[in-house]
Structures are given as C-alpha cells and as structure tokens.
Automatic annotation (TrEMBL):
PANTHER family: DNA TRANSLOCASE FTSK (PTHR22683:SF41), SPORULATION PROTEIN RELATED (PTHR22683). Belongs to the FtsK/SpoIIIE/SftA family. InterPro entries: FtsK/SpoIIIE/SftA (IPR050206), FtsK_4TM (IPR025199), FtsK_alpha (IPR041027), FtsK_dom (IPR002543), Ftsk_gamma (IPR018541), P-loop_NTPase (IPR027417), WH-like_DNA-bd_sf (IPR036388), WH_DNA-bd_sf (IPR036390). Pfam families: FtsK_4TM, FtsK_alpha, FtsK_gamma, FtsK_SpoIIIE. It is a multi-pass membrane protein. Keywords: ATP-binding, Cell cycle, Cell division, Cell membrane, Chromosome partition, DNA-binding, Membrane, Nucleotide-binding, Transmembrane, Transmembrane helix. One of its GO terms (molecular function) is DNA binding. The lineage of its organism: Bacteria, Pseudomonadati, Bacteroidota, Bacteroidia, Bacteroidales. Its main location: membrane. ATP binds at G508, A509, T510, G511, Q512, G513, K514, S515. GO terms for biological process: cell division; chromosome segregation. This is S-DNA-T family DNA segregation ATPase FtsK/SpoIIIE. It is found in: Cell membrane.
C-alpha cells in the first residue's frame, strides 16, 4: 500500500516538474505571453467601450456580482460583454478612474516580455504605471470632474475622489494644483537623470550653454559673455522642441537604413533627455558616430557617453533550437540546391547524420542586469581625466566615452599644438588620479584622429559564452573554423577564422584566464563544426585542463594508433604525436599533389564531387586543430625535439588544414623563441606581470596593463584589439561534452599515422647494443630503481635531456633487464627492487 502511494506521489511530482519545465521553456513562455496579451487586449477594449456604452450598462452592472450578471443573462452593451463591462466599471469607476487604462497596458507589457520580442524591465514598468495610476486619479478627479461634471464616468475613480477631496480640504484648490505639478516634477527628476538640465534650461540665464572649443570653464564665462545672449536665445524651450523634432526626423532617416528599431526607441522616445541636451553640433571630425548597436547619451554639453547595446537575446535563441540541429554549412548548401546530381555528392557527415549540435541553452546566462552604466562614475572619470591633463597644461576640445563590458574607452581630442607623446607619458598620472589599474593610453587611435584612454569599470560585467554563441553574428558566420572569443570594448562580438590566422599563440600569467580562453575557443568550434569536419589533438601537461573533453573522444579527438587516451598528458607522447602530425601533414600534401589542388578546401570539394577515388588512397580530410596547453613545460623538458615539429607544422600545415594553438604562462624568450614567434602571427595576450613579457608576446607593451579575469589583447600583425574574453565555466563545458558524448560517435578516435623515426621508431629493443651504453646509463638506472617508476619523462626531467635520448636510455635499461617492456602510456615495470640488487646487476653487465 505505502509503495503504491509513493509511486503515485512520484508520478504526480514528475508531472508537476514536467509542467514546470514546459512553462519555463521558450515555447511555454511564448504561450503564456500570447495569453497575457490577449487578456490585456480584452480588458483594454472593454474599458474603451465603457466610455461609449458605460452609461447604458451602469445600472445593470453596479454593485452586482459577476456570476449574477451571467446567470441572469443581462443585456449588456459593452463590446466585450459582461466581462468587459464588469472589469471597466470596477477599474474605472470603483478604483482609479480613467488612468486605469495603464493596467491593461502594463499587463500587455508583461506579455510582450514573456514572448521575448522586447526586453522590458517589469519593475520599471510597474513603478511607472503605479505612479501614473495614482497621480492620474488625483489629476482626473481634480481637473476632468470639473470639466465634464455630467458624465457616467467617475473620472478619478473612488480612489481619486477621496484623495482629491482630502487634499482640497487640507490645501485648497491652488495647493492641489501645486501638488499635482510637484509630483510630476519629482517623478521626472527621479526617473530621468538628465531632467535636471532640462528644468534648469527652462530658466533664462541658466548655464546649459555649449562651451567653446576648449573645455575651460573660467575662460568661458569671461570671454564669451557677448555670445551668451544669442545662445540662450537658441536654447529657449521652443527652439529646443523644434530642434528635437528636426533631429528626430534625421534619426528616422537613418533608421530607414536598417537601424534596428529596438536600439533606437529608447533614444527617440526620450523627449526629456533630448530636450536637455544642448543645441550643439560638435566639430565634424568629432561628431559622434551613432553605432548600429549603440545608445548615446549626451550627459553634458561636452561629454557624450556611448553605451553599445547587445543584440536581443531572444532573437538569437530562435536561431538555434535544441530540436532543430544546425546543419554543417556544406550540408545546408547542398540542401538548398535542387539539383539531383548535387544530392549524390559524397557527404562526409553521413556516418553521423543524426548528429545534433549542442544548443546554446546548455550554456549559462549570467545576470548583468544590476550592472548598468554608472553615469556618476563616467562623469567623475571624465572630470579626473580633464583635470589631470589640465594640470600638465593640456587642454582638450572634446571627450567621449564608450562603455564596454569591463572597460570604458574615453576618446579625447587635444587642442591643436599638443604633443601626443606628452599625453602618452601621462599614463601613470592618469592612473593615479583615477586610482585604477589597467589604464592604457592609445595615442593616436588608429584611423580615428583621437587619443584613447582605456579605464576599467568599477563593476565589470561577465561576458557569457552563451551571449557570444547565441549571437546572430556567430550563428550566421560561415568561417571555416569559426572562433568567437568575446566582446570588444564597443560590445561587438569578436570573431576570427582560425583557418586564416593560421596558428595562434596564447600567453598570460597564471590565473588570468588562459584556460577559460582555450575552452572558449574549443566551445565555439564544437558549436559549429560537425565531427566529420574537424578533429582536435589536445595536449595537456597539467593533466586536468582538458580532461573534460575525454567524453567526445570518438567524435572530435585524434590520437596515435597505440595510445590509450586521446588527451595527451605525458610529455614523452607529445614528441611522438607531433612527429605523427608532421607525417599526416606530408601525407596530406601528397594527396593534394595527386589531386592537383592547392588547398584542403579545393581537395575536399573535389572529393565531395566524387572526382577523387578512395581506391587511390584519397579520403575526406577533416581540419585538425592542435591545442597545446602549457607549452612552456614541454619546451623546458623536451626542448628542440618539440620546437622543431611545431615549427614545421606551423610553417607548412596551413594549406592542408592543420592549425595550432599553443598556450603558455611563461612568456619568456627561451619559451617563445624566434622560430615559434615567426610562425605564430596571431597572438592572444592575457595579463602578464612585466612589460618585457608583453613585448615577448605582442612585440609591444600593453599586456602588463590589463586587469586580468579574461581581459586580453589580440594581435594579428599590427592590429591590436582589447577584448573581454567570453567566460565559459567547466560545468558548462561538461554539459556540452556530455551532450555530444551521449550521441552516436565513430567507432574510434581519429587515428593519426604511425611515425617511424630515423632510428626505426620506438621499438628498438631487439637492436640495442649494450656495449655502446649511454654515459647516463648507470645514473638513469639508479634513478628508475630509487623512484620505482619506469618513466621516460622522469629521465628527461632529471637529466634535462630530450625525448629521443631518454627513449634510447630506456631501451638500454630494458635490454639490461632493469625495466620491462612498454605498456602503452603507462610507465614501464621496474624489475629491480632495490639499489643493492641494481649495483650487482650493473657490475655484471
Ligand atoms: N573571461 C573571464 N571572465 C570572467 N572571469 C574570468 C574569465 N577568465 C578567467 N576568469 C576568472 O579567472 C580565473 C582563472 O582563470 P583560468 O583558470 O582560465 O586562468 P589560467 O590563466 O588558465 O591560470 P593557470 O595558468 O594557472 O591555469 C577563473 O576561475 C575565473 O574566475
């Protein structure tokens, strides 16, 4: 019996959680949104009808119960029947009067938010509607009742009437009028930051006047007194309104040029803010460019703050749904072609045709809502920059701020005659005055004619991987190996095609965001490339960083034929793998040559068209991305043996679709050598501790001035871009890899070719000549016996020798019977138990 009960209980909990999940899903939310909008519409129509039909219905509806009215089938004139008449009578006459119309409007807003076509702040809307409701009821009761005394409508509702009567008794008619105006002013001042300027400007003589070229308040008052009257004239309220309409028209013209309505509405609708901004046209070269995604606020006459807007999230969500997989580009192209012959092309993804790409829902959405733009902070920073520069005798003609997720860029235009180097040298002084780390001066800003000062925001935002992956740009991009890295200072998604880089060097001190950066790169590739199109070789000497990718071994990873695991953690295996990759590279070149093509793209295209026969050894070539974390560790242990194959691959592998990403936390010249640097034109620099390190990575300083936590500089040739790296946490990556891992994969990981070195490869035990022992033979034997660990990398590390020599030593130790044979990636068995037995053994050899 109790078992039955608990089963029943379980079932009902499951149903409830299913319902909840549905309601939380996109479909559920959309459905609820539509319902809510219909309810709002019904109420609104009912209330509008009330103005025309309310008189006829009033006697039938007033003081009755809703059910009574339905049961007794009353003849109701309201367009929405008993329901509408009842709601309208209650809301308008009983409660808050005609301004109750904002109630269905508010409900409609909630519906719109649920549907997701527009992001509306519910709290803001609630406060706004509540104020309108209360203020409106008093206002209507006081004014409209006097204007239209003989009406079936109680203009301010019972609520308004009572309040208004109380106020009128206490303060008199004039007092109530003043209270109504005061409440309105208070509300506008509280809700609109720029309203103070607007109100000030209503009074002639206020200083809402555009300033002269130089921002120098003292000079300004004395010298331009004469011009003041003229300008004040220009600033009169009528002129402002006229100008506002003129500007609005201009903006509408721009908006026809595809500017998103979403982003402009807040600007256009904001009459108060526009009115408060001065009638001041900045010099042509300083004119603010209205970014497609930007919202620009004229905080003061001379200071414009641009807040680049993100693309609407919902719009992006619709692009990838968990149900509808994103087909690989090639497949999409093929499907659109109606040509039957095209359909017969070879389809590399056919083996895993049911493969579903992960959806962006698997990634976490970080709540940055509380981290809006702090106008006070922007203004204070601006003042500090101006004052610091002024202290050193530098005047500027304009200053503009662009607020990014973690950094704000202040662009200044100095007065003619100021030496740029003078400003550049003030980096430390500005940093001191702003009491902030990570100040960077870009003088001049390339192609802009301004000088940039980057200042970290007090409350930085997290750029979620979700926002980057779900962005329209990423979803619609057709790069061969698309990598979405994060967001630039102007909130734009920063993306690049790894194929074009073609190799990438990642550096940064420990804990500054390298691993997160590598995960972001891998994640973007996983979201766009089908397992048939891309394979990865992951090298992880730290052993813990790439472990999460082991679940996708049979989908995306490549490994050596005899390797147990695809993720390489053993230093000794790295040389083998890299050599194997150089072999794969050479094999691919031979295939390309046989196919008479120059690039992997042309080759694969030919293969798809079935113009290359598999019988002649041709095969579809997936891209291979080699990612090495902590490359410094490898160079320290294996030196040239690692550097050489890396350099070879970096020099040649681009055309055959092999790309490398190497990361290091030790950006010194003995790790990032000249050979490495020459072959890795694209560099990603996270924060480093010294200017020298920054120069080693980027060939210039800057990385030492970053603020960490994913703040980075990306350089490709001479261009240097500051980016906030997208944040993807380990659990998020796990979700993705598990989603992929659960799906059908290939039988094995992608097999790399076996590499047989000059000496005949690894397995040389049979030919080992113990008469020609390595000078380190005895010491190595002691080391192995003392540690009881037959590991080649141990020998490498202890004696600082390369892998080949350590491997030879190990073979000699095996031939001497000190260690056992190879056991895949595991250390060899040590056959001698103690040092005494070893000494005996050594003397007998
Ligand atoms: N893009 C980012 N946004 C926000 N926080 C970040 C970002 N990247 C890194 N962090 C923060 O910094 C911490 C360290 O990052 P990460 O592990 O990537 O550093 P690392 O450079 O790889 O360090 P190590 O070299 O020691 O492994 C993270 O746990 C996270 O809290």
């Amino acid at each position: 019996m109790p078992a039955k009960k608990s089963k029943k209980k379980k079932k009902s909990t499951k149903t409830a959680s299913n319902v909840l999940r549905f309601l939380r899903s996109e479909r559920g939310q959309f459905l609820m949104g539509v319902c809510v909008i219909f309810i709002a519409l019904f109420m609104f129509i009912g209330m509008i009808s009330f103005f025309f039909t309310g008189a006829a219905d009033q006697s039938k509806v007033a003081n009755k119960y809703f059910l009574d009215l339905i049961i007794h089938k009353q003849d109701i004139s309201n367009w929405t029947g008993v329901g509408g008449a009842f709601i309208a009578e209650a809301l308008i006459n009983k409660y808050c009067g005609v301004f109750s119309l904002v109630i269905p409007v508010f409900i409609g807003m909630i519906g719109v938010r649920l549907i997701g076509i527009k992001t509306i702040s519910v709290i803001r809307a609630f406060i706004l509607c509540s104020f309108i409701l209360i203020w409106g009821s008093i206002f209507s009761s006081f004014i409209l009742t006097k204007v239209f005394p003989d009406s079936h409508i109680i203009w301010g509702g019972s609520h308004g009437s009572i309040l208004e009567q109380l106020l009128e008794t206490a303060l008199g008619g004039i007092g109530v009028s003043l209270i109504i105006i005061l409440l309105l002013v208070v509300f506008v001042i509280i809700t609109k930051q720029t309203s103070v300027g607007f109100f000030k400007n209503l009074f002639p003589g206020s200083n809402g006047i555009p300033k002269s070229d130089a921002i120098n308040e003292d000079d300004f008052e004395d010298e331009e007194a004469e011009e003041d009257n003229e300008i004040i004239e220009k600033n009169s309220v009528l002129n402002k309104i006229f100008n506002w309409f003129r500007r609005k028209k201009k903006e509408e013209d721009v908006s026809e040029d595809n500017l998103e309505e979403d982003n402009l509405l807040p600007i256009n609708n904001d009459l108060q803010r526009e009115l408060s901004s001065p009638v001041y046209t900045p010099p042509a070269q300083n004119k603010p460019i209205l970014n497609r995604q930007s919202r620009s606020i004229d905080v003061e006459d001379d200071f414009e703050v641009v807040i680049p807007q993100e693309e609407a999230y919902q719009e992006k969500r619709n692009i990838i749904s968990p149900i509808r997989p994103i087909l690989p580009r090639e497949e999409r192209e093929e499907l659109t072609a109606s040509d039957v012959e095209e359909m017969e092309d070879y389809d590399p993804t056919k083996d895993l045709s049911n493969f579903h790409f992960p959806s962006s829902d698997l990634l976490k959405v970080y709540d940055n809502t509380g981290k809006g733009v702090d106008m006070a902070e922007q203004k204070a920073n601006k003042d500090k920059i101006i004052n610091t520069l002024r202290n050193y005798g530098i005047e500027i003609t304009s200053i503009k701020a662009t607020v990014g997720p973690t950094i704000t860029l202040y662009e200044i235009v100095p007065q003619a005659g100021v030496r740029i180097s003078k400003i550049r040298n003030l980096e430390d002084d500005i940093a001191l005055s702003l009491s902030a780390l990570g100040i960077r001066i870009i003088a001049p800003m390339p192609g802009k004619g301004t000088i940039g000062i980057e200042v970290p925001n007090k409350d930085p935002q997290i750029v979620s991987m979700q926002s980057v992956i779900a962005s329209k740009r990423f979803q619609e991009c057709n790069y061969d190996l698309p990598v979405a890295l994060g967001k630039t200072i102007t909130n734009e998604i920063f993306m690049f095609d790894l194929c074009k880089m073609p190799h990438l060097l990642v550096a940064g001190a420990t804990g500054q965001g390298k691993s997160v950066g590598l995960n972001a790169i891998i994640t973007s590739l996983l979201y766009k490339k089908h397992p048939a199109e891309m394979k990865m070789v992951l090298v992880d000497p730290k052993m813990v960083e790439f472990n999460i990718y082991s679940t996708i071994e049979k989908h995306y990873l490549a490994k050596l034929p005899d390797a147990e695991k695809a993720i390489i953690t053993d230093v000794s295996k790295v040389t083998q793998t890299l050599n194997s990759l150089t072999k794969e590279m050479d094999d691919r070149y031979e295939l390309l040559m046989a196919a008479s093509v120059r690039t992997i793209k042309e080759y694969n295209e030919k293969f798809r068209k079935r113009r290359l026969s598999p019988l002649k050894g041709h095969r579809f070539l997936p891209y291979i991305v080699v990612i090495i974390d902590e490359f410094g560790d490898l160079i320290m242990t294996a030196g040239k043996e690692i550097e050489m194959p890396i350099a070879r691959i970096a020099q040649k592998a681009r055309a055959v679709g092999m790309h490398m990403i190497i990361a290091t936390q030790r950006p010194t010249t003995n790790i990032i050598t000249g050979t490495i640097k020459a072959n890795f034109p694209a560099r990603m620099a996270f924060r480093v501790t010294s200017q020298i390190d920054s120069r080693t990575i980027l060939d210039m300083s800057g990385a030492n001035q970053l603020i960490g936590r994913g703040d980075m500089l990306f350089s490709q040739g001479s261009d240097l871009v500051r980016i906030q790296c997208a944040f993807v946490d380990t659990p998020e990556v796990e979700e993705i890899t598990q989603y992929i891992g659960k799906q059908q994969g290939y039988a094995n990981a992608f097999e790399l070719p076996e590499f047989v070195g000059d000496g005949g490869g690894d397995d040389k035990t049979g030919s080992v000549d113990l008469s020609d022992k390595d000078p380190l033979f005895e010491e190595a034997a002691r080391l192995i016996v003392v540690h009881q660990q037959g590991s080649t990398s141990l020998i490498q590390r202890k004696f600082s020798i390369g892998y080949n020599r350590a491997g030879r030593l190990m073979d000699q130790l095996e031939a001497a019977g000190i260690v056992g044979g190879t056991q895949g990636s595991k250390p060899r068995e040590v056959l001698i138990m103690d040092e005494y037995s070893l000494e005996q053994k050594l003397s007998s050899i």
